[in-house]
Amino acid sequence: MLRKYQVWLAVFLLPLAALNAQQAQPTQYKANVAVEPFHENKIEISVESANLFDIGSTHTYHLAPQTVSLHWQLDDVGNQGWLRGNTEWIFSGYYTPVIEGPENRFTGALFGPRYNFVQPGWKWVPYVGSRVGFGFTDSTGVLGAQGQDFCFSFAVDVGVRYIINDTVDISIGGMYEHYSNAGLSEPTHQNNGLDSAGPNVALNFKF
Predict the structure, then answer these.
(1) CA R_g for the chain
(2) Which residue in 1, 94, 162, 207 has its CB near the most CB atoms, within 10 A?
(3) Rounded to whole angstroms, how far apart are CA atoms 162 and 168?
(4) Is the pTM of this model over 0.90?
């Protein structure tokens, strides 16, 4: 269990470490904001859908998260080589129907950083990100469900986005998501936890 949270912490801090490295670069590596699709204070709205299956959970799960997110670009494109890119902060609200599993739904919010690997002239932009948050489910009294209705969650996603034009792009990738109540339901109810992974796709609108 400790190792799992050490891995999560490392993944969550990866984009922030890249941001710190970017800020340390000399100004001559800063991109021309006028021609960059990513730049400081740019705002985007995304609509995302995923198809997740349990990995090592105590019960069989099939989840279909539906997410609406606000993306806030924190800086201009910086760094050089394969690290060239920028960091954004994502605020997400989600509703997750449980297609297979003890509960019927999860709903809540996530927030966290994403790093975009932006190369000059590329329409394909790889990214890696992580978000943490909270959620609610209908577990109370359901045999084999999560220990309580309130839970914590975190998600890690990697993928690539294709820039269609100045206002729209599409993202495709893979996502890992975890739910648990950090033992708050114990000893009355077991903290079962849920780990799931699968593909996701999102449509992004720039402002």
Answers:
(1) 18
(2) 94
(3) 9
(4) no
